[in-house]
Write a structure and sequence with these properties.
The complex is a heterodimer of chains A (about 425) and B (about 270). Chain A has about 425 residues and is of the alpha/beta class. Chain A folds into 3 domains: about 40 residues, no CATH class; about 100 residues, Transcription Regulator spoIIAA, CATH 3.30.750; about 240 residues, no CATH class. In chain A, about 70% of the residues lie in helices and about 10% in strands. Chain A contains 14 helices and 4 strands. In chain A, strands 1-2-3-4 form a 4-stranded mixed β-sheet, covered by helices on one side. In chain A, strand 2, helix 3 and strand 3 form a beta-alpha-beta unit. In chain A, helix 8 runs parallel beside helix 11 and helix 11 packs across helix 13. Chain A is elongated. With about 270 residues, chain B is α/β, with parallel strands linked by helices. Chain B has a domain of about 140 residues: Rossmann fold (3-Layer(aba) Sandwich), CATH 3.40.50. Chain B is about 40% helix and about 25% strand. Chain B is built from 10 helices and 10 strands. In chain B, the strands form 2 sheets. A 6-stranded mixed β-sheet of chain B has the order 6-7-8-3-9-10. In chain B, strand 7, helix 6 and strand 8 form a beta-alpha-beta unit. Chain B is globular. Chain B starts with 9 loop residues before the first strand and ends with a helix. The chains are: A alpha/beta (about 425), B alpha/beta (about 270). At the A-B interface, helix 3, helix 4, helix 5 and helix 14 of A face helix 3, helix 4 and helix 6 of B.
């Protein structure tokens, strides 16, 4: 084993030694590193008459080829008009990448002149060289992209068409779900009660803490903002109405729906999507088990039952949050808050909120399941559809909410 | 690198290995040596822990007792840099190929090269093309995504990726399962060739009796939570254990044996 030798490598060795000592590693490792530093793939060129001689030496392994690869690519030009002889006698180690590079260089010249050859290969290296020989053709790495502008136009057009078909497909899926639901309700023994209850627990009960906390905080924030602004008009007391109306009509149910879309809608897509990837859905169909009945309906039914409950809870906790803030900041006692709420807020405000919940739930669950069914093949597709599921569900929840707002305005409810 | 100059050095040493999932013990007191330059086939019934043994060796399943040494180092006790050095010296083929689904086949093969070697782009692409071709895929498979390939082609692409860094040892989990018989025997040939020209060591989990006969230098039989026999296939065939007898003397075992005997007498 060689010790460190004086010369230009000394500083490098010093750095290695210091670093390695700092890491408190044994001395043998230092030697190992030095040996690796010294070995590399080397080439010497020797032009003699009509012979272009290339002496290869050192370690022709993938990790050391980077520095000579570009040079080797030029040899087919440089050796123009010569016979190329590659001498590999001094090559200590060779792997398939090294053999490939040698063969590639050799072949690029060999096509022109018959006198080219590779000499001096040991049995082992000759075997390697022979082994890579049939495998030198380049292969496609990735598909060609047309220019960026065309791609953009292409995407725009594709996106528009896809949006149209996606809307049709969602509508058709909704119809399919509804017809299945009627069919199953006409034969109640086909209802998967166990599965429904399981999903009610997962999407409903398990979401109680987060939905409750969020709506409590939103109620408090609304009350706080109201108190701040209304106090300029000496009308703090109206923040009771503000909290009551906002929370009962909109915030309670919207918050619950948004959280559930993010929490359960995405989970539905991921669950059904990964089942699709693992061909479980195909397996079900061949076994005569209807995935709509087993996977989609229980989720839809569970969410339709559970979201109104969550919305109710959210509304109540929103009121509590608002009441707490008005009590602490404006000395409106809970009793006064309650009696004023009772007096000023009509019950129909509450119904306006709650009535929307099953619609939101239906949309969230159907979109979640629909996107799950659209997943194909790869993990990337699963991610894409999970994102789409949440985005579309939120979008539709807001759109439906807007429609309801206009509707209730028109009928003066 | 033959620093010490030993000829039969052990690439892998497993001593007193115990692995378990919660209360279920998979291996207990398991010993196994894998020597440099050999192809070892690990066989055993379903659920005997073949794949778990492989995962314990490649650092994916921490043993609850015992030592696993690879290249003379304990992976589970190594620091980050040492681990990365070890990882560059092995290649792993998982059962389903485990290709990265967001990359094309060629990009999959280039991934470890780009991560560890930082070579010029053209050279990296050449190496990828070489490995893809060596694994038996055609050149036009390079720009396909894994989801566009059949199971067998995925496996070949997985082999190409496992060989990307010219590893000293390759771990193959059921490499020939899912390949057609022609593909499977081509694969046996590929492995033997690589072993001979590169001095590759191969750790193979397999059910394929033909592969055992055609490619493996030694066979390790997993049963009763440990390696009950390990040796050349002729020795293992004659070992006295009910599972081994059933395995090698069943109709498939006899057929595979008959065909290798016929090959040997036929070729010389």
């Amino acid at each position: 084993m060689r010790r460190s030798r004086p010369g230009k490598d000394q500083s490098i060795i010093l750095i290695y030694t210091i670093t390695l000592q700092a890491l408190r590693r044994p001395v043998e490792n230092v030697k190992k590193v030095i040996i690796m530093r010294e070995s590399a793939a080397k080439i010497d060129v020797d032009v003699d008459g009509s012979v272009f001689r290339l002496n290869a030496s050192g370690e022709w392994r993938a990790r050391y080829l980077g520095s000579i690869d570009a040079q080797l690519r030029h040899f087919s030009d440089e050796s123009m008009g010569y016979d190329l002889i590659i001498d590999v006698t001094d090559v200590e180690q060779m792997d398939t990448a090294g053999a490939m590079v040698i063969q590639r260089t050799f072949l690029s010249c060999e096509q022109r002149s018959g006198g080219s050859k590779i000499i001096g290969a040991s049995d082992l290296h000759a075997a390697l060289l022979a082994q890579v020989m049939p495998h030198l053709d380049p292969c496609a790495i990735e598909r060609e992209h047309p220019n960026a502008f065309l791609m953009m136009l292409n995407r725009l057009g594709r996106g528009t068409v896809n949006a149209y078909y996606a809307a049709l497909e969602i509508l058709s899926f909704i119809g399919f779900t509804l017809s299945k639901a009627f069919y199953v309700f006409s034969q109640p023994q086909r209802l998967r009660m166990k599965s429904i209850v399981h999903h009610m627990e997962e999407a409903g009960l398990d979401a109680v803490p987060i939905v409750g906390l969020m709506s409590f905080l939103i109620g408090a924030v609304v009350a706080f903002m109201g108190a701040k602004i209304l106090s300029q008009f000496n009308a703090e007391i109206f923040s009771v109405e503000l909290v009551g109306l906002a929370v009962l009509r909109e915030f309670g149910v919207l918050l619950a729906a948004i959280l559930i879309a993010g929490r359960s809608g995405s989970a539905y897509t991921a669950q059904i999507g990964s089942m699709k990837i693992r061909e479980e859905i195909d397996a079900m169909e061949t076994l005569g088990i209807d995935p709509m009945e087993v996977l989609v309906l229980p989720r839809v039914i569970a969410l339709v039952i559970v979201l109104p409950v969550l919305a109710f809870m959210a509304a109540m906790l929103g009121l509590i949050g608002g009441g707490l803030v008005t009590w602490l900041t404006m000395d409106i006692s809970p009793a006064l808050f309650l009696s004023r709420t009772k007096e000023m807020i009509e019950l129909n405000n509450f119904w306006v909120g709650i009535i929307k919940a099953p619609f939101f739930a239906f949309v969230i669950a159907v979109i979640g399941c629909f996107q799950g069914m659209q997943v194909e093949g790869s993990a990337e597709s699963l991610g894409k559809h999970t994102t789409l599921s949440v985005v579309q569900a939120l979008f539709l929840v807001i759109v439906i909410d807007a429609f309801f707002a206009m509707f209730f305005l028109e009928i003066d409810f | 690198m033959t620093l010490g100059g030993q000829t039969a050095e052990n690439m892998i040493e497993v001593r007193g290995l115990k692995t378990q999932f919660d209360d279920v013990v998979i291996h207990e007191n398991l010993d196994l040596d894998v020597r440099k330059g050999e192809i070892i086939g690990v066989v055993g019934g379903s659920g005997s822990g073949k794949s778990v043994l492989m995962r314990a060796i490649i650092g994916l399943k921490r043993p609850s007792a015992g030592v696993v040494k690879i290249f003379g180092e304990d992976y589970y006790r190594a620091n980050e840099a040492e681990r990365r050095a070890i990882e560059q010296r092995w290649g792993v083929l998982f059962q389903g190929g485990a290709l990265f689904s967001s990359m094309t086949v060629a990009q999959n093969v280039m991934a470890p090269i780009n991560e560890h070697l930082h070579l010029p782009k053209l050279l990296t692409e050449d190496i990828a093309a070489l490995k893809i071709s060596m694994s038996g895929l055609s050149a036009d498979a390079g720009d396909k995504f894994p989801s566009e390939l059949s199971g067998g082609m995925n496996k070949r692409a997985g082999i190409a990726r496992a060989l990307a860094l010219d590893p000293e040892i390759v771990f193959l989990d059921e490499p020939t399962a899912g390949l057609d018989p022609i593909g499977a025997s081509n694969f046996d040939e590929l492995i033997v060739n690589l072993k001979e020209s590169l001095g590759l060591t191969v750790f193979m989990v397999t059910h394929d009796l033909d592969t055992l006969h055609a490619a493996c230098d030694r066979v390790a039989v997993l049963a009763e939570k440990r390696v009950i026999v390990c040796g050349p296939i002729e020795d293992v065939r004659n070992a006295d254990h009910p599972w081994i007898r059933e395995y090698f003397s069943g109709p498939r075992g006899r057929a595979a044996y008959a065909s290798t005997v016929a090959d040997k007498t036929g070729s010389g």
